[in-house]
User: What shape does this take?
Amino acid sequence: MEQRLSLITLGVTDLDRSREFYEALGWKRSVREAEGVVFFQTGGMALGLYPRAALAEDACVPPGGSGFCGIALAYNTRNREEVDLLLAEAQSAGATILKPAQDAFWGGYSGYFADPDGYPWEIAWNPGFSIDPDGSIRLPA
Assistant: This one.
């Protein structure tokens, strides 16, 4: 198996509400003709939104669950100031701030918001990571 991730699909309770939230962040929908699912191109990979019950059924797992889902999505910024700007933008779009931005023990600066379904997003500036013009992250060797 190649070391890569192609698509992250979030199981959402209200597809239209979730689509509107990500569009309010300025994201542009891809594959508009697809029915019952929403896709966003995110650099070299994609984010999908799909009804939670249908996604659980497809994976043969129960749809229930609450609290921390055991995953956090991350958006790395090119500079420290962008962290505060993006957290404010997310809050204006309807996100809940989980953790205001602050200096991190690992030398960067980060905070968290939750999307309408409670998925946590970390907005982080890491001085050791570079971000390419297309948004791809480059990890040190």
Notes: DSSP finds three helices and ten strands in the chain. The beta strands are 7-12, 29-30, 38-42, 45-51, 73-76, 96-103, 109-114, 120-125, 130-131, 137-138. The CA atoms of residues 56 and 113 lie 24 Å apart. Helices lie at 15-24, 52-59, 80-92.
